Amino acid sequence: MMRLPHFRFHAPRTVSEAAELLASAAPGEAMLVAGGTDLVPNMKRRQQVPATLIGLRRVAELRAIANGDGLSIGAGVTLTELVRDARVRSAYGALWQAASQVATPHLRNMGTLGGNLCLDTRCNYYDQSYEWRKAIAFCMKKDGETCWVATSSPKCLAVSSTDTAPALLALGARVTLVSAQASRQIPVSDLFQNDGIHYLTRQRTEILTAVHVPPLEGWRSTYWKLRRRGAFDFPVLSVAAAAKFAPDGTVEAARIVLGAVASRPVDAPAAAAAIVGHTLTDELIAQAAAQAAHPARPMDNTDFTLHWRKRVTREFVTYALRELRGDDVRALRVKISRQLV
Fold first, then answer.
1. Residue 115: pLDDT above 80?
2. Dist CA 286 CA 246 (whole Å)
3. Rounded Cα distance, 175 and 335, in Å
4. Cβ count within 10 A of residue 145
5. pLDDT (tens digit, 9 = 90+) per residue, 239-296?
């Protein structure tokens, strides 16, 4: 049985109190925990061993969903609460689909939107027990010096496996980061960088407190996820797509984002630009799907072969664009993705 290491625990009731606790801790000593569905297993495997945990579940201001200029969603809102919100389902389909496909109902009851955004990067050589990792002399991401995915790589290639981040990038969302000294708001795209270890730009003293999704009248969005099983598994490929349509069906603006193909979600601007100003014909969808596959650089660090994951990117972008066009793809979701959302 894997047991948790010893740690101190604080349960602040406000964001400012949590930020003060985080600021007063020595670098690397404290970590934030909300649902704990990612951090607690990592602690049991000794991948992360903070001396202090700062719990956020009692911070009420992180649990609100509010209308305004779009929708403001507290980082502490659980994925289940997000899925049950009619405003999310009706206006932000990609986010609703992404949240509804995370893990299992039990984990969605605990896991939060902020936690899924900040999900630790994953790798076959990293997500193992301490004894397993020790047997291979560990890896660059924790305790070792070599990235076993590509032994000559100067940086860790662990893969981004968050479901909600690609969807929020496609929706043009922003996040609020709060520290004891200041508050700032940045695009979700600026929250990530392509490094398996330092995959977030969030500073160690900052708390991600809210996600802001803009009003998207005239937009449609969707999220497709590839995994071995129809539930529980992390994505080995995901595609989030959003497009604004004119009354005649012409695409006025678009975004296409790939997940689980790098250490951060990957934008596919050339593919999105290819469909702007046109209606979504089969030929145009095929052209855009081929372009979207170009920036996908999957590595041998997760399930399935990397060459097949690269090739199937084109198919999943095709499915997403067909759904945006208005095709009935429910049967296809069940057959290909083993999902009905």
1. yes
2. 21
3. 35
4. 8
5. 999 999 999 999 999 999 999 999 999 999 999 999 999 999 999 999 999 999 999 9
Amino acid at 10: H
Helices marked H in the chain — which ranges? 15-24, 39-44, 79-84, 86-91, 93-100, 105-110, 113-117, 130-135, 164-170, 269-275, 282-293, 306-325, 330-332
Task: Kindly report the three-state secondary structure assignment for every residue of 236-297.
Answer: CEEEEEEEEECCCCCEEEEEEEEECCCCCCEECHHHHHHHCCCCCCHHHHHHHHHHHHCCCC
Dihedral sign, Cα of residue 82, residue 84, residue 85, residue 88:
positive
97-111 pLDDT, tens digit each: 999 999 999 999 999
End-to-end CA distance of the chain: 36
**Rounded-to-integer distance, Cα 306 and Cα 294, Å:** 14
Cα gap 3→43, rounded to integer Å: 8
User: Exposed, middle or buried: residue 130 (CB in 10 Å: 0-12, 13-18, 19+)?
Assistant: middle
Domains of the chain are 61-118+159-213 (3.30.465.10), 219-337 (3.30.390.50)
Residue that has been written with the tokens 């020790």 in this structure? 134
Look at residue 231 in the predicted model and tell me its pLDDT: 87
pLDDT tens per residue across span 82-94: 999 999 999 999 9
Counts of helices then strands in the chain (DSSP H, E): 13, 12
Per-residue tokens: 199: 């995959």
CA angle 322/281/312 to nearest 5° reads 45
As beta bridge partners, residue 23 has: none
Nearest Cα neighbor of 316 from 263, 278, 259 is 259
Tokens of 117: 């955004």
Do 272 and 285 contact (CB within 8 A), yes or no?
A: no
Closest CA to 267 of 275, 277, 256: 256
Residue 340's pLDDT band, with cuts at 50, 70 and 90, is confident
Average pLDDT for 1-10: 94
